[in-house]
C-alpha cells in the first residue's frame, strides 16, 4: 500500500514530500503519532474557497442564496465521497483492522475526510494555483452539469447513499455496448450492486446512461423495502 503512483496519476499531481501524502491518508484509528485530521481541517477551508470562486465565476447572474445552495450540494460529505470514489481513494487509506472489518474503506465519513486531507496536503505543499485545476478537473469529470436542477436530481449520488447504508458497498457501472458513429454515440450501461445486476439503460453519454440506470436501481431498491 506504499505505492501511491496510481493515486497521484488520478490526481495528476506528484507529492514532493511523501510523508505528507502518508499523513493525509492516515485515519485516526490507525494508531500512529499522526493522522489526517489537521489536513482535513485545512482541506475543508480551501475546498470551500475554490468551489466558491468557481461558482461565482460560472454563474454571474445567480444571487448569494443560489450560489450557497449549489456550493452546499457540492462541498459536503456526499460530494467529497463521490470525488473520493472517482479516484479510488479507499484503496489507499490507512485504517485499523477493526475499521477494515467494518468496511471502513467504503464509509462516507472516512472517504470524505481523507479527500479533504489530500486536498489540504496539496495546498500546503504547492499552493492554491496548483490545487485549483485538480479540483475543477475532478468536478468536471464527476458531474455532467453543475446547476441547482441537476444537483438535486442526481441519481448516482442518491443511489450510492442507499447502497452504502444497506450493503456497505458502492454501485459498479459497466459499459455493455456502444452504438452509432463517433459524433453521435449512444452507450448502454449496466449496474451491479453487491455482485447482483439491477438493470441496464442507454444514454447519449456514459454519464447520462449511468444516471438513467441509477434511477432504475433506486426504484427497485425502494420497492423492495
UniProtKB/TrEMBL annotation:
Enzyme kind, highest EC tier: hydrolase
Cofactor(s) the protein requires to work: Mg(2+)
Domain of life: Bacteria
The reaction(s) this protein catalyses: Endonucleolytic cleavage to 5'-phosphomonoester
One GO cellular component term noted in the UniProt record for this chain: cytoplasm
Annotated binding of Mg(2+), by residue: 40, 113, 116
Domain annotation RNase III: ranges: 4-127
PROSITE patterns xref list: DS_RBD (PS50137), RNASE_3_1 (PS00517), RNASE_3_2 (PS50142)
Entry keyword Lipid biosynthesis: no
Protein name per its UniProtKB record: Ribonuclease 3
Amino acid at each position: 500500500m506504499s505505492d501511491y503512483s496510481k493515486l497521484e496519476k488520478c490526481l495528476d499531481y506528484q507529492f514532493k514530500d511523501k510523508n505528507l501524502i502518508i499523513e493525509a491518508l492516515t485515519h485516526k484509528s490507525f494508531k500512529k503519532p499522526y493522522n489526517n485530521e489537521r489536513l482535513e481541517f485545512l482541506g475543508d477551508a480551501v475546498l470551500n474557497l475554490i468551489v466558491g470562486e468557481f461558482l461565482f465565476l460560472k454563474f454571474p447572474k445567480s444571487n448569494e442564496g443560489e450560489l450557497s445552495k449549489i456550493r452546499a450540494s457540492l462541498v459536503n460529505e456526499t460530494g467529497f465521497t463521490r470525488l473520493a470514489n472517482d479516484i479510488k481513494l479507499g484503496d489507499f487509506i490507512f485504517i485499523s483492522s477493526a475499521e477494515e472489518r467494518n468496511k471502513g474503506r467504503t464509509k462516507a465519513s472516512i472517504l470524505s475526510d481523507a479527500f479533504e486531507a489530500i486536498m489540504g496536503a496539496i495546498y500546503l505543499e504547492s499552493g492554491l494555483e496548483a490545487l485549483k485545476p485538480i479540483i475543477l478537473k475532478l468536478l468536471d469529470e464527476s458531474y455532467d452539469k453543475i446547476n441547482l436542477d441537476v444537483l438535486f436530481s442526481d441519481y448516482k449520488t442518491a443511489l450510492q447513499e442507499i447502497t452504502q447504508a444497506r450493503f456497505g458497498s458502492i454501485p459498479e457501472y459497466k459499459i455493455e455496448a456502444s452504438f452509432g458513429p463517433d459524433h453521435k454515440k449512444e452507450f448502454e450501461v449496466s449496474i451491479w450492486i453487491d455482485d447482483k445486476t439491477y438493470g441496464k439503460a442507454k444514454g447519449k453519454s456514459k454519464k447520462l446512461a449511468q444516471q438513467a440506470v441509477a434511477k432504475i436501481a433506486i426504484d427497485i431498491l425502494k420497492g423492495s423495502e
